[in-house]
Amino acid sequence: MRVFVYQAFIQAGGTHMAYHIGCILQRHFGAEVLAVGSPPESGMFRYPVDMPVIDEETMVGTASADDLLICNPSFSDRMFGLRLPCRKLSYVQGVRTFRVLDVFFDRYVFVSKWARRFVNQHYGIDGPVIPAFIDTDTFHPGDSQPACRRRAVCAILARKHDPLVFERLCRVYARIHAGEPLPFEMVPVLPQADLARRLRECRAYLSLDVMEGFGLPMLEAMACGCAVVGWDSGGCSEYARAGRNALLARYGDVEALAHSIHAVVTNDTTAERLADSGLQTAPGFGWQRFCAAWEQELSSFLRRT
User: What element of type H or E holds 228?
Assistant: First the structure.
């Protein structure tokens, strides 16, 4: 059996999860795994398992009924569900990366119950939920200071926010809190080890992504001992519990978010309580859980097809 992992090396969380499904198929099922599309490049992720890279034309021209395609719905416009004779599995990790879902795959697995409800409501498709994983060898508190002793700023991922919404948040924060500027540090795209080090320096993590199938950065920040605050992005409900391990605001309620930010940067007790709860949550979403769930799912899927 050959396995095609479409765009395994694109620098995005969803494609990185697909790469790791390919790793599981290679290690535990003895499959020949091929990455389709762009070759690996330096960036956010490490790639411990080698995969030969072929182009899309080669995949389309050689795929047979015995082969398997692993593909994210982000690439629904390629319509592989109808174009390829092989078995096809989609790991649905986001709901805004496609205009119309390719509904002709053999199996759909969802990163969160929220993503499954969204797809079921709009397309009538169901399937199991397997949450994404975080690299707990990279994202951990280490010997860093407790949240209450760190710099009283919120880390924000530059690639995960809308500048106009952020500008409004800054204005509202200053208006509510007597002219104080929003305490933040904008973090550029970094390798994961460098990102983890930056997170361990900050008291809080501010999540400004408005719609996530899962939301890896929020969970990675919890693992690094940050107090987490941000929009309730949907998929984060898989692990985030409002008031317990995160302070969440409904998207658009800028004043509520501004108050939550102020609470975590000025109140040591609140910051420490949220951070401690997050540290208890994050290890439950490590590699071993992801691998075991996918081994079971793939065994079942391959037996049926």
Answer: strand 227-231
pLDDT at 166 over 90: yes
Q: Taking a C-beta distance cutoff of 8 angstroms, is the pair 106, 305 a contact?
A: yes
Residue 220 buriedness (CB in 10 A; 0-12 / 13-18 / 19+): buried
> Helix %, strand %, coil % for the chain, to 5?
45, 20, 40
Taking CA atoms, 213 is separated from 46, 95, 131, 233, 278, in Å, by 22, 6, 10, 8, 19
Q: Is the dihedral of CA 36, 40, 45, 49 positive or negative?
A: positive
Residue whose C-alpha is closest to residue 228's, from 259, 206, 196, 256: 206
Chain centroid, CA 65 distance in Å: 31
Which position has the token pair 């691998």?
291
Indicate the pLDDT class of residue 42, thresholds 50, 70 and 90: confident
Q: Residue 224: which of 111, 132, 287, 146 has the closest Cα?
A: 146
Asked whether the predicted pLDDT for residue 305 surpasses 90, the reply is no
Residue type, 157: L
DSSP annotation string for 240-273? --BTTTBEEE-TT-HHHHHHHHHHHHH-HHHHHH
CA distances for 238 relative to 36, 42, 302, angstroms: 30, 30, 27
Q: How far apart are CA 182 and CA 261, in angstroms?
A: 8
Q: What distance in Å separates the CA atoms of residue 39 and residue 191, rounded to the nearest whole number?
A: 17
- What the chain holds in terms of domains, given with CATH numbers, is 2-133+286-304 (3.40.50.2000), 147-285 (3.40.50.2000)
Enter the tokens of residue 218: 């929020």
d(CA 169, CA 224): 25
